[in-house]
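Lecture 7 notes: from sequence to structure.
We start with the chain below.
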Amino acid sequence: MMKFFRKIRQKMMTKKKSSKYLFYPTRKTNYALLFLLCFFTLTSSLGQSSSLFDDNNEILTLNLRGDLKTVFKDRGNDPKYHMVNLQYNTDQNTINIPIKIKSRGNFRKMKSNCKYPPLLLNFKKSSILKKSIFKGQDKIKLVTPCGGEKYVVREYLVYKLNNLITPMSFKARLVKINFQDTVNNKSSEPLYGFLIEDEKKMAKRNQSKIMKKIGQRPERVQKEHFLKMAVFQYMIGNTDWSVQYQQNIKLIVNDSKSLTTAIPYDFDHAGIVGAPYAYPAPELQLSSTKQRRYRGYCNPKMNQFTSTIESFNKLKGNFYKLYEDNPLLSNRYKKQTLKFLDQFYKTINDPKKVRKAFSYPCNKSGTGNIVIKGLKKN
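Predicted C-alpha cells for the same chain:
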C-alpha cells in the first residue's frame, strides 16, 4: 500500500517537457494522501479479515479426524487432550490444522445422557492458523448433538436471540461436523453442532475481564443488564442458572470499581429448546421446562422493569423473524415456538400478569429464592 502511494506521489511530481511540475504536493495534499492511505488500509484490512464469529449465517463444515473412539471414551472428571486433525474447505483449497481436543461439560459429558460429548478445541499457534478462519483463536467450545440434531440448532438460535438483546453475550457459529475415526476407519453422518466464542475474547470484546470468584450476590450485579438477562431467561423458559454459583453464568467486570455483569450460556435446558432430557430442578417444583419461572431476586417496584419490557417489545419482530425465516426448523416447531413467545408477550404487557410473574421471588413461601448449584465442583 505504501509503495502504491509513493508511485502516485512520484507521478504527481513528474516534470513536463516545459520543465513545469504537473502537480506540486503541498502540506495539505500530503495530509490528504495520508488520509487516503489510512482509509484504504482500514477498508482493505476489514475486507480481508474473516472472523469465525462474524455476523453471517453461513454454516461451516468441519472434519475432525483422528482416534475419536478414545476421545469419546475419555469422559471422566479429568479428561486428557488428544491430537486430531481439523479440516475444512475454502474456495481455493483444503485447510488442515493439527489441534488437541478433549471432552468437557457436565450433564452432556455423561455417556448415559449423550452419545457425543461436548468438546474443547485447543489451537496451537502456527503459520497454518494465521491464514485460516481460526486465526487468533486459542480454545473454543464445540457443542455436539444430544438427543437429536434439531435440539442443537434450537439452542444455537437462543444464542442468536441473546445477541439481539445485547453485545454482552456469547457469539456462536453453526457448523456441520464430520467425525472421522482414522483408527477404526469409521465416519459419522454430517451432524449439526455449533462453536461458542471463548469467554476471554467475549470479555475483551466488551472491555472487561472474567471474574472467577464464587458467591457473588445477584443484587451486586449491574441492575439494568441483570434485569434484561433474567427476563430473557424467563422468556426462553430457562431456570437452570444462578449468579451465586455461576451456574451457566459468566461474570465479567470492567475494573475493580465497577459492578459485575452476568452473561448467560448453555441453554439446552430451556423450554424453547424442548430437549427430551431437560427437566427443571426438583426443588423448583415445576412440571416441565415449558413452565416459566422468573428467577431474578425480589424486586417489588415494578417500574424498574419498565425499560426492560420496552426493549423486549421493540425486539419482538426480530425475535419472531429469527424463527419464521429459518429453513432449518420444522413448521411444527415454528408454530410451537411462536405460540410460546406469544404467551411471554401477553404476560409482560398485562400489568396483573407481569406483576405476579416478576414479583415471584418476593414470595417467601415460594421457590423463588432457591439457588441452583449445578453439577460442577465449586
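Points to note: Residues 60-197 form one domain. The longest helix spans residues 27-48.
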